[in-house]
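Batch job 17 of 40 flagged for manual review because the log was empty.
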Amino acid sequence: MLFAVWCTAGERAEEIRAKWRRQHFRYIVSQRSVIRTGGALFAEDGHTIRGMLQVLDLPDREAAYQWVLDDPFGREGMWATISVEAFHPRIPEPEPGFLEAQVMR
């Protein structure tokens, strides 16, 4: 099942990011099979980390939450908040004509 994971940066995010970035990317590389899309969220300056958004294919909400905690950023307390919600992608369309069919419902 797909889950959208949205994390907001805590007060020590820049410090944690600088120290654990390499280990975080090792984790991301090892988890490619469950990551559908995602990345960092930044302030408008393009440098200040604001959070992370990932779409993960995992069995349940608890597994998605644990995935965040197993990441070095999560383990080291980078995130002030962690939100996990079931995700049903609609764009791009899961099949041609899906959106038009929704209009007619």
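Reviewer: the log was empty due to a logging misconfiguration, but the result itself is present. The chain has one domain: 2-104. Unflagging and moving on to job 18.
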